[in-house]
Amino acid sequence: MKATQILHDEGQSIWLDNVSRDLLDKGTLQHYIDAHSVTGLTSNPTIYDHAIKNGAVYDAAIVEKLARGVAGEELFFELALEDLTRAADHFRPIYERTHGVDGYVSLEVSPMLAYDAKKTLAAAKELFARANRPNFFIKIPGTREGLPAIEEAIFAGVPINVTLLFSREDYLACAEAYMRGIERRIAAGLDPNVASVASVFVSRWDTAVAGKAPESLKNQLGIAIAKRTYAAMSALLSSARYRRIYNFGGRPQRLLWASTGTKDPKASDILYVKSLAAPFTVNTMPEATLKALANHDSLGEIITADGGNSEEVIAQFAAAGVDVAAVGTRLQDEGAKTFVKSWDELMGVIASKSTALDGRAAGAGA
Questions:
Q1: Known catalytic residue: 65?
Q2: Catalytic hit among 139, 227, 274, 353
Q3: Lowest-pLDDT range, 47-51, 89-93, 100-104?
Q4: What is the pLDDT of residues 197-255, one digit of tens each?
Q5: pTM, whole model, 2 decimals?
Q6: What is the CA radius of gyration of the chain?
């Protein structure tokens, strides 16, 4: 049996960390759903940057939008919504079959709004309404400034993928925002069943501490942090507070493992997949990692609810002089800046492509 099927059967959702018009037009996404147990996908500006810059698949759509006076950020969101609503329709049977637990796609708000909770909330509501699909997550960074927008979006009934989480503490802060939003819905007599995932980035930890700890600890910190976070989730989901939410019809926020492509060429190509198999979680992986997983026929052990040896491993890093808390804070700060950088690059690609296509169209018209 393929490892993708094994992982699915163990209760972990496999999502693809990629989307493009080619993926949809050529039937590749449906193939991944049918053959590799893919049950959702995530997107980000970098994915679109590469697709628009390195090919012509979006050229006709860009020309059509330019003719209507659509440009820049709005042009991007039109392209992304066209792709992601199509993808959401592919996953709709999974969403229906799992009663809204699985089968989602994700689109993030502009990172330029990161420090403005009101504008982030307004953008989240608008994008969700424009998508007009129940299985559609809006991505909001789980930074200190993003937490109020997350709570308000959940209260407003907008499904949220909380992104840019790196530590147990990040996760608990976002879970608190999620629960407050749900509890406010209960108090207001509203349906408390609003879906959410909490996306914890894994591999960046190991890149950040490469060469700063003994070789015996290489590529172990990201996994240990993830397992520690899983233990925190397991405890939270069994708490009296969450039981009350369940009793009113609410559901728990799921953990999602992000940044799970192997960066170290000497490590296993499915390092962060086989090490983080756990029920009621999601692993969103790049295409290369998905294909690699499909070529394996076994996985590692399932994560235990107590996080296994995570605290022991983290303590070893601390003993080696790694300030784990400081690294986590730095990773989130750098991640937020990277989001903005990626967005700026995407807007630059769209501008340059628009100029080139507009000039070509004008030349053809002459």
A1: no
A2: 139
A3: 47-51
A4: 999 999 999 999 999 999 999 999 999 999 999 999 999 999 999 999 999 999 999 99
A5: 0.95
A6: 21
